[in-house]
Amino acid sequence: NGPAGPHDEL
Amino acid sequence: MNVFRLAGDMTHLLSVVVLLLKIHTIKSCAGISLKTQELYAVVFAARYLDLFVHFVSLYNTVMKLVFLASSFSIVWYMKRHKIVRRTYDKDHDTFRHYVLVLPCLLLALLINEKFTFREVMWAFSIYLEAVAIFPQLVLLQRTRNIDNLTGQYVFFLGAYRVLYILNWIYRYFTEPHFVHWISWVAGIVQTLLYADFFYYYIMSWKNNVKLELPA
């Protein structure tokens, strides 16, 4: 599921 | 994507657009801290390293490119443009911003989601963004003259942070396991930095007087 953390945010 | 986050991204975009317009149209950066703009350029460069390797959405990629382009062009204008650079108030913009960079880097090495180069740089960008406004607020206190474009710039930046906190609250209640202390703590610290500016900005707007920050 991709890297940790809310990296879908800017 | 929720409405708070979209509104937050839009006010963030608005803050840089207001700033670019101010610099581009009146060819002046009076009242703007170059240090803060340089810190923001570093924040985006450090945070968007995954720009080409981790595709989230078209929106995400476009916004990253816009933020990178705008922050670096603002720095370019203030440092290189023959007319704008003369309006830069370097005597008052003396906050030693490297004092902010090093602790953020050390903190990122200690507290991060994963000890990888990209995650450490991401945490570094989160911590640095939290304090990036500091030189700008110091400059405003020093020069005390806040033209309304600069005031609007800081106001929109603060609004974007408040909206992001609302976004995190919304995501916490709607998405399982959405817990990210690094962003939350840094984001709350960052928003608190704007609190007093907000207070004086709204008071001056309400009493219809020129915005004055206490010395």
Automatic annotation (TrEMBL), chain B:
One of its GO terms (molecular function) is ER retention sequence binding. It is a multi-pass membrane protein. Keywords: Endoplasmic reticulum, ER-Golgi transport, Membrane, Protein transport, Receptor, Transmembrane, Transmembrane helix, Transport. It is found in: Endoplasmic reticulum membrane. GO terms for cellular component: endoplasmic reticulum membrane. The chain crosses the membrane at residues 55-77, 98-115, 121-140, 152-170, 182-202. It holds the Pfam family ER_lumen_recept. One of its GO terms (biological process) is protein retention in ER lumen. It comes from the Eukaryota. InterPro entries: ER_ret_rcpt. Belongs to the ERD2 family. This is ER lumen protein-retaining receptor. It comes from Miscanthus lutarioriparius. The lineage of its organism: Eukaryota, Viridiplantae, Streptophyta, Embryophyta, Tracheophyta.
